[in-house]
Prior knowledge:
It is built from 13 helices and 12 strands. By secondary structure, it is an alpha/beta fold. α10 links the parallel β10 (255-257) and β11 (279-282).
Amino acid sequence: MRIAIATTLAPFIKGGAEYLAANLAQACSAAGHQVDIFKLPFLDRSADSIQKSMDLSLQEDFSLWGQQADLVICLKFPAYYVQHPCKTMWVLHQHRSVYDLWDHAVAQGHSHSAEDIALREQIMALDKRVFNSVLQNFTISKTVSNRLKHYNHIESSPLYHPPALANAFAMDDTQSETADFIFAPSRFEPLKRQHLLLEALRLTKHPVKAVLCGSGSYEHHLRNLVVHYGLQDRVTLHTHLSVAEMISHYKNSLAVFFAPYDEDYGYVTLEAMLAEKAVITCNDSGGTNEFVVHDHTGYIEPPEAEQIAARLDALFMDRNLAVSIGQNALHHYQSLSLSWDNVLNQLLY
């Protein structure tokens, strides 16, 4: 079968979406299919740039190719607007700014312009039409499926998949250790909320350390917070770690902190479980809470520095507890039976 994977391209940004597309293509190829990834440019700078990206996707007719694809698997807005008679959705997320993040902004007192409102109405109408016209609707998590149901009244099936570093963990035979630092790998963006970890560290009663790894618009703010809170001796920020270094940090950490706001899925959660580490997350962190079982595989806390600080202190003082929770996390991950074979069985047949 000839399979086209339709996704978007944002310059100089590489994250979970890019890993998912690449690993899906690799799985399709390994199963004997011809596959290509088609990345349509997407700029989220203004209503006008979003509209242009939408128009470009709407005009892209995959059925006109000389070597026509047998199936198009669509991953992201607005790439899922491309035309093809055999199209399946496996959606990472919709355009969140007009869905859950719209409500989040309103709750924080933000007002939207008439242009924003018009664009939102257009996107919601288009989404409903497109999702109702495809072969199958899958999402990457219950969180994304719940949004699709809530805002568009569309039924969909969550389809879990292995995280980006799953193969690297499988090939690594080093043993997990328990040091005194919390590992927090994620893009440096406001929604990832690394500031909660820094705010908690300044309240801990014990010298818990933290290692942050990522890149993004929030980096300068986070570095300023480290200085402002006097945490220079306890916090390290990396903008890049190799795969081997990432796995080493996962495996040698006391626990992993990953508490974004309403995350779609969250590779960090699953990779922490593979490393036998407890995940500290928050009760509004979305997809992470589909995998973290409070007090068993990790901890689900309110997004408040005091509560997180108390949890950090408890783990710092009881390394046996940290090890036990980490072991539970690995066993829970193994019980999920995540595999690309299962993904393909759902998407292709």
